[in-house]
């Protein structure tokens, strides 16, 4: 589901962390987790420079049968970032297309392909998290967002000492049915970029529903809250604008780099008073 990330010169927009993530504003948190989601696509041997510039002192890489994730940690926080689809990974492609809903470990039904990816990773990941007592966060882009959603839910059934503080997903597909998404009470910020097609699958008629609080970027990359009719019009506008550039924005809107750029733009608008301060959800 994810557009391949070219390992270009690493560009990190977040300032180095010198305090707990919980003390950052919601948009600053979102920018950090979007950047970490992009970093998760890098090879393990070049990740260190990127996370050091953000303010993390340690990382651990997990790869089980093509299912991949990182743990990034510093003195305050522990962040689990699941990697999205890589087109050359058959296991990832198989996970994306296997949309059969099966009984979940928590409640309700969950996407079989996404569940199998987490099944591969979870034993090692759980062992590592049982050693962690720092504030715990989850994030991911594309398939990685779906995996992070499932992992965060499984923490509720585990002996992991730190409950997840929040979940941040970018361009994530639907993961489960109503019972599944309502079982875990967790702050979840679900970022959607205009016509990103991955956010529309699997379809609702198969019983799948989205979880969390939607954070929507319009066709101009601006953070807005629209009624359904306005959203419909905005998506058509984005589609026709992309055709003029010989692009299909249903695919191009999925790039994690666009999420990063749009969140940075939202931070600027918030700081200059063009939009109201974006508030965090109240603890559940």
TrEMBL record:
This is Lipase (Class 3). InterPro entries: AB_hydrolase_fold, Fungal_lipase-type, Sec_MonoDiacylglyc_Lipase. Residues 79-203 form the Fungal lipase-type domain. GO terms for biological process: lipid metabolic process. It comes from the Bacteria. It comes from Aureliella helgolandensis. It holds the Pfam family Lipase_3.
């Amino acid at each position: 589901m994810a557009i391949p990330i070219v390992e270009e010169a690493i560009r990190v927009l977040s300032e180095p962390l010198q305090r707990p993530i919980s003390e950052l504003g919601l948009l600053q948190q979102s920018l950090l987790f979007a950047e970490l989601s992009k970093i998760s696509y890098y090879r393990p041997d070049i990740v260190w420079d990127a996370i050091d510039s953000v303010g993390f002192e340690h990382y651990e890489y997990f790869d089980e049968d093509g299912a991949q994730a990182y743990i990034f940690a510093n003195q305050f926080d522990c962040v689990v970032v699941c990697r999205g689809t890589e087109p050359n990974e058959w296991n990832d492609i198989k996970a994306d297309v296997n949309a059969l809903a099966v009984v979940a470990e928590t409640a309700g039904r969950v996407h079989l392909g996404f569940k199998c990816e987490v099944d591969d990773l979870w034993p090692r990941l759980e062992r590592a998290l049982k050693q962690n007592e720092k504030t715990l966060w989850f994030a991911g882009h594309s398939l990685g967002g779906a995996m992070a959603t499932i992992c965060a839910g499984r923490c509720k059934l585990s002996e992991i000492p730190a409950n997840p503080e929040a979940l941040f997903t970018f361009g994530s597909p639907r993961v489960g049915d109503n019972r599944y998404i309502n079982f875990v009470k967790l702050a979840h910020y679900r970022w959607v970029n205009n016509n990103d097609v991955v956010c529309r699958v699997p379809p609702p008629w198969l019983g799948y529903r989205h979880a969390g609080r939607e954070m929507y970027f319009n066709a101009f990359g601006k953070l807005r809250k629209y009624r359904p009719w306005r959203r419909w019009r905005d998506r058509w506008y984005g589609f026709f604008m992309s055709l003029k550039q010989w692009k299909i924005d249903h695919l191009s809107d999925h790039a994690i780099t666009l999420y990063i750029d749009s969140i940075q733009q939202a931070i600027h608008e918030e700081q200059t008073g063009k939009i109201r301060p974006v508030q965090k959800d109240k603890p559940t």
